[in-house]
Design goal:
Blueprint lengths: L1 H14 L3 E7 L5 E5 L12 E4 L4 H8 L3 E4 L4 E9 L2 E10 L5 H21 L5 H5 L7 H9 L5 E3 L3 E8 L8 E6 L3 E9 L3 H20 L4 H15 L4 E9 L5 E6 L5 E4 L2 E4 L21 E3 L6 E5 L13 H7 L5 H15 L8 E8 L28
Antiparallel strand pairs: 1-2, 1-6, 2-3, 4-5, 5-6, 7-8, 8-17, 9-10, 10-11, 11-12, 12-15, 13-14, 13-16, 16-17
Helix pairs in contact: 1-3, 5-6, 6-7
Amino acid sequence: MDAVAVVAEDLRRRFGAMSVSFLIVDLTGKAVARLAAAVGVEGGREAERIALHGTAYEQVIRTQRLYQEATGEGHRVIVPVTNRGDAIGLLELLLPAHPGADVLDEVGESAHILAYVVIANGRFTDLYTWGKRSRPPTLAAEIQYQLLPQSLSCEAAQFTLCGSLEPSEDLSGDTFDYALDRDTLHVSVTDPMGHDIASALAATVLVGALRGARRAGADLAEQAHRADRALADQGHGHATGQLLRINLHNGRAQLVNAGHPWPLRMREGAAQAITCEVDHPFGLSVTVPHPYRVQDLDLRPGDRLLMVTDGMLERHGEAVDLVALLERTCDLHPREAAATLTSAVRDAAGGRLADDATVMCLDWHGPEQTLRNVSSGADTQRASASRVHQHS
């Protein structure tokens, strides 16, 4: 936290800021926690938690643009703390007078630097992890959260993506993952059988096998095979999953489906399921020997692809028209779209899900896109409030 305090002290010194706060977005995406940022302030295990709905904080996160207003105490400025589209939090300042454009630019640069500070220092402290949690997790939840990618969102020239997981009461082990190589985007969504510790352990084996195979340079079929063998060899039951690989240079997309729900694709404002071939779930190779088939996926610039777990479709998910909701959220950034979709299922369950509800939302911009339109940590042209849906 000392590194954040240094940034805060620098802003006080340069601009005469009367107060500086760093607010971190919690895991639900529905609230922020205000963390102490002043040098010498004792930081305990209490933080002011603020619901985002209807606030200026929500507006800044959605638009990825600064907010400012005059108050009786000074001039309030809120700027996003974001890296490659991953909305980490917010920087809030109270300045003595209305700032000029040059001051606002410098504050925005400081917020972008703060994003890197938080990412770098997160390797050495639990403070930011603690700030993201509204309540202590169970052991199973702790394991499951550690399996998710460190950044739930990612923006690149060719794509924008975000994953969202609404955990069930007993946790069902859902995970999603992605990795960006020099010329390839790798994405996966997996759903082990079982609940609580059993599912968390199965997810650990599964994600570890997939990451190990991917990092060793294995192709999609081999990644699926290693995940299958790992679950079978360790006796952790079975899991459904979907593996996706996209060549960033030519746009070729390939898919392996291991007993998983079909993905959805939205094109020109209309969404429908992609009826791909379905192979056996991971972990059943001993009883159902069968090679995994790598299938070509028709993906065009302007498409939105949605990969889901069965918690989005069954039980409480049946009450949500997922196709219609995907179409209605077409103008939202994948960050907000993914959260809206999983929250709809959670709301249909009255806040008590019987199965994890997980989505990975991917916007494909196309291989001809080689540069991001950014001056900070996000492409504001693709943010929710300013996004104009482009039809192919």
